[in-house]
Design a protein that fits this description.
GO terms for molecular function: D-glucose transmembrane transporter activity. It holds the Pfam family Sugar_tr. It is a multi-pass membrane protein. This is Glucose transporter 11b. Keywords: Membrane, Sugar transport, Transmembrane, Transmembrane helix, Transport. This protein is mainly α and about 500 residues long. It has 2 domains: about 210 residues, Growth Hormone, Chain: A, CATH 1.20.1250; about 230 residues, MFS general substrate transporter like domains (Growth Hormone, Chain: A, Up-down Bundle), CATH 1.20.1250.20. About 75% of the residues lie in helices and about 0% in strands. Helix 18 crosses helix 20.
């Protein structure tokens, strides 16, 4: 191996001994600034639409009556309402397909700032829907909130992964899931009748998506662009050093060395397109991993748990008017576990958390199936079912909910990462759409045994991660690539008699 490349393969645990273990204040504020207008919007717009359901349906009926002098049929009303809710998913898919491209053209920070245009436009349209009597504006507004969420879910983890020092990359990357859960909880709270949940306030409630957008536009410009983007994509060495100093403080030489080595490794390579990534056999295990993890994030049963939650709360004797407050408990539960995962990830590592999370979810699926099967056997059983709901949410937040996005960042180098996020995000949103369409039929067909399907998914993913995915804690992006590449190199040696090293192959 050439002398100049020997240092690439030295363990970062040795190189990290002089690095700070606590994030710089500026870094923490940059993470918050990126997240408040990013994944917070995703979580917020998922939950905030639930509170005004009956109010919006009444508005559609009144508007229909004014236009056509007749009440709307129940089937058409259901179709319109489901369109308002589900078009968010279509917008997310559109957003994620353009987010990666925008992150290369405008930069990570530039894309996040530009993305607020969609949130502000959506807030304006949904706010004007009632005074103008145009329920169609709700559909367009929800489409724009979906585009905003799709871009945020694609670009924000990119930005967080690239501004964080290696030793804190996992903890900083947890900002994605932490702010999703904070957004979900905020949407649940603000939708209470005591706040903006009253009928006359629903246009204001849906328009509050502009507040995080304004906050990000005020705060994020004070923080730098991703140092890796500045040096590797733009060749701006001075800008990179300035950004590193602001984000990491004076002791940022180690991070500069890592970025410079990655830049030297990628000399002559352009940012890859998604189809180029799919055709690259040298990273097929990384691609397979992120496709499986992002599909499993939606298909693992977390949506089914939330679907059954209201039924279980009712079965447990909780009055219908109190269920929204209990539902807030599920949001708070997921928020707490996301924060816990953020504190544990640099100690336990990614592999332990995500494998353990899926294993615990598998156990919860078994218990949940049993408690639903014998729901009427004893007055205690509904409460055991409720315990399973919270245990499942805790298990999801502890690993799969937070670590998936971090692994998508860590398994690829700079020129492949935006395309990887396009592929991962597309799989995630398509899986979200699929489970939304298929889940009602799964419940009708299997009833409580639907959780056996999720049991199979969770257990298979846990097994795959345990056997295939390496631990990425405290490793540079190049070291992670090399661990995945070792299997491919052995296969290449057996077929053409010549092995290739990480630094001499296309990444």
């Amino acid at each position: 191996m050439p002398k100049e490349f020997e240092d690439e393969y030295q363990p970062l645990l040795i190189k990290d001994t002089k690095r700070t273990k606590f994030p710089n204040k500026s870094l923490l504020l940059a993470v918050c600034a990126a997240c408040i207008g990013g994944t917070f919007q995703y979580g917020y717009n998922i939950s905030v639409i639930n509170a005004p359901t009956t109010h919006v349906q009444s508005f559609i009926n009144e508007t229909w009556r004014d236009r056509y002098q007749t009440d709307i049929s129940q089937d058409v009303l259901t179709l319109l309402w489901s369109t308002i809710v589900s078009i968010f998913t279509l917008g997310g898919l559109i957003g994620v397909t353009i987010g990666g491209t925008l992150s290369v053209m405008l930069g990570r920070k530039g894309t996040l700032l530009t993305n607020n245009i969609f949130a502000l436009t959506a807030a304006l349209m949904m706010g004007l829907s009632y005074p103008t009597g145009l329920f169609e504006l709700l559909i367009i507004g929800r489409l724009f909130t979906g585009i905003n969420a799709g871009i945020g879910l694609c670009v924000q983890p990119l930005y967080l992964g690239e501004i964080a020092p290696t030793a804190l990359r996992g903890a900083m990357g947890m900002g994605t899931s932490v702010f999703i859960t904070i957004g979900i909880l905020a949407g649940q709270v603000i939708g209470l009748k005591e706040l903006l949940g009253k009928e006359e306030y629903w246009p204001i409630l849906l328009s509050t998506t502009c507040i995080p957008a304004f906050l990000q536009l005020l705060i994020l410009p004070w923080f730098p662009e991703s140092p890796r983007y500045l040096l590797i994509d733009k060749g701006d060495a001075e800008g990179c050093k300035k950004a590193l100093k602001q984000l990491h403080g004076a002791g940022c030489n180690g991070e500069w060395d890592d970025i410079e080595k990655e830049k030297n490794n990628l000399v002559g390579f352009q940012a890859k397109k998604p189809w180029e990534l799919l055709a690259d056999r040298s990273i097929r295990w990384q691609l397979l991993t992120i496709v499986l993890l992002n599909a499993a994030q939606q298909l693992n049963g977390i949506n089914a748990i939330y679907f059954y939650a209201e039924y279980l709360f009712t079965q447990s004797g909780i009055p219908a008017d109190k269920i929204p407050y209990v539902t807030i408990g599920t949001g708070a539960c997921e928020c707490i576990t996301a924060l816990t995962c953020g504190m544990l990830i640099e100690c336990l590592g990614r592999k332990v958390l995500i494998t353990g999370g899926y294993t615990l979810m598998s156990i919860c699926c078994i218990l949940f199936t049993l408690t639903l099967t014998f729901q009427n056997a004893s007055p205690v059983i509904p409460y055991l079912s409720m315990a399973c709901v919270f245990a499942f949410i805790l298990s999801f937040g502890l690993g799969p909910g937070g670590v998936t996005n971090i692994l998508t960042t860590e398994l690829f180098t700079q020129n492949a990462r935006p395309a990887a996020y396009i592929i991962a995000g597309s799989v995630n949103w398509l899986s979200f759409l699929f489970i939304g369409l298929a889940f009602p039929f799964i419940v009708i067909g299997l009833q409580q045994y639907c959780f056996l399907v999720f049991l199979a998914i969770c257990s298979l993913v846990a097994t795959y991660i345990f056997l295939v995915v390496p631990e990425t804690k405290n490793k540079s992006f190049l070291e992670i690539q090399n661990e995945f590449r070792s299997t491919n190199k052995r296969k290449a040696c057996s077929t053409d008699g010549a092995g290739t090293t990480l630094l001499s192959t296309s990444i």
